């Protein structure tokens, strides 16, 4: 497997990531946009009313030169990923290997709680999936705001948040390398204004909505492929009304 180009979907088990690193494989995260092609090209394989992340997976997989794909289809991802695995298996000539990540050893969440631009936190967390190592320890900050949810397809939605935003939800599970840890996923801080986010048509929209209803200072938000001006304006207004001011102009 040395030198192989491998695509991953979700968070494969640590043993898989460790093996890929040891064998010098080049890992590409298929959940993130990797090719400059319109996502509507996937409409011949998936309905348009479908999770934008998984549509992105199919777009990447059908345009990149890969030697194999590892796709997590267990409780740390979703049933839709299982269905997409079958579709990719029928479309591609390379192996599509299903995994069930039930890892439960905690690696910590220093990026989720440190003072850093939110986009940089998300970028580091998603890139960290490709390594079997824990993130280095960082000084935690006092949170001004919270972002609960999955990494958005369009990171521009993160621009208006203060650097002191703490990350919750499945993204925190990603950094902890325990994507199926539901107790960690539902953990929130009720004392800070929190945006509960999920991609439109994702099964996690139900949990995001449920938790936002229980949270005393919450805004529920879902977005499809891109974060439009309306979504960004809602976030900015929510933060402003919560007493959080930012001079970010993005």
Short recap of the structure:
The protein contains eight helices and eight strands; from the N terminus they run βαβαβαβαββααβαβα. It is of the alpha/beta class and 250 residues long.
Question: Which key terms come to mind for this protein?
Answer:
single chain, 250 residues, alpha/beta, four-stranded parallel sheet, 8 strands, 31% helix
Question: Which sequence of SSEs, written as H and E, runs from N to C?
Answer: EHEHEHEHEEHHEHEH
Q: What overall geometry do the principal axes of the alpha carbons give?
A: globular
Q: In DSSP terms, counting alpha (H) and pi (I) runs of 4 or more, how many helices?
A: 8
pLDDT < 50 stretches: none
Overall helicity: 25-40%
Count all strands and give the number: 8
How does the helix and strand content classify structurally? alpha/beta
* Strand percent estimate: 15-25%
User: Main beta sheet: strand number and arrangement?
Assistant: 4 strands, parallel
Kindly, what is the distance between the CA atoms of the first and last residues, rounded to a whole number of angstroms?
42 Å
**How large, in whole angstroms, is the Cα Rg?**
18 Å
Mean pLDDT, nearest integer?
Answer: 94
Strand order of the largest sheet: 2-1-3-4
